[in-house]
Hints:
This protein is α/β, with parallel strands linked by helices. The protein is built from 4 helices and 9 strands; from the N terminus they run αβαβαβββαββββ.
Amino acid sequence: MNRTAIVEEAREALRHAELIHDAARVGEAVAQMAADIRRDLAEADPILLCVMNGGMVPAAMLMPHLDFPFRVDYLHATRYREQTRGDALCWQHRPTQSLAGRHLLVVDDILDEGYTLEAILDYCRAQRPASVRSAVLARKEHERGVRPPLDYVGLSVPDRYVFGCGMDFKGYWRNLPAIYAIPEHLEGH
């Protein structure tokens, strides 16, 4: 499929998408997550690890609410590669800072089946940090997969393909301030 066709498919998905959480609700969830993170990590000098690409938007939404010193780094491990179905994990970038002895906060967009986040958390634990906490903006409502424990969860979303707030539809719409579900007839394409 050429780029023009994919862009049109993305536009079509948004035109027919169901709004799951509007921007105001997303903002409330981010503020609550930030309050919980401040309570737990304000004195810890943590490293916030953004999981690229999806975690970029939730991390950027959280950071202004975190009024304490912390460092930022990122990692990039993906199963989706701009598709609506995941496959084998592919590491594209690991953090550049030493994680040993540090308190870590891993921020991602969504917990679906959990395989990617579990692999990331296992990697982080193997670096011998002082602690590892995880935060996701959204958690899908199902029991499939490995479902690693989460410390901070903003919102629940239905077991559908969702996009916006860092989550994409074939590489598009991460920038939307709300969360949408694609129409069921477009799922799996």
